[in-house]
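Narrative of activities, Objective 1.

The group set out to show that a structural description can be obtained from nothing but a protein's sequence at a throughput compatible with the screening campaign. Below is one input-output pair from the validation batch, recorded exactly as produced.
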Amino acid sequence: MPGRILLIETDAFTQTSLRSHLLASFYEVTTVSNPASGFAAAQHTQPDIVLIGQPPNPITAHEILQKISDLPLFRNTPVVVLSSGPLGAAARLELLHAGAEDVIDQTAEMDLLMARLRALMRHSVDSADIRQTGYEAQQLALAEAPRCFDPTGQVVLAGASAQQTSHWAEQLRRHLPALIHPTTVQAALSGMRAGNAPDVFVIACGTEHRDPGIQLISE
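Output recorded for this entry:
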């Protein structure tokens, strides 16, 4: 079954161009020109991913994300903001904090967008399977009652050098309430093979075919 994508884009030319790229990748695409129409369309299409073309005013995009996050229908739906040009770190961070799964420059990163959509689609399918399995288990009384707290997330960092990994860990610990595990790519590979998988990997990758970071991603 092809993935369903809802595209909210005010510019007609950009909307047509993006729709063509998405259809060529065999997605089912619903396009609307404003957020209000998008919320209504979502009731019928139940999209797997929502793409938002960033309006000229970044605050508007921020408000759209807040509105989406308040709708139960979008609770498990990833939202990607498409910028009309490069954004600074502060602007990207604001949109990510508002609930965007990612912020991508559609004028220069079309290949990245398509790769990101494939990854999000895989994650969406896996998450749906997990939710359905959990529901069935509870119906059959095979699942324990929900915990009263969420377990602390675990993040493994594998930089290109010990210095880079330590710098990542120092920065993330200031902002992320998770267990941070600095390590090497080789150690992370060994952990994966032993069945010790964290919630998130942050990996430094090169462009060489045999790069250890690429090998870790493939496993």
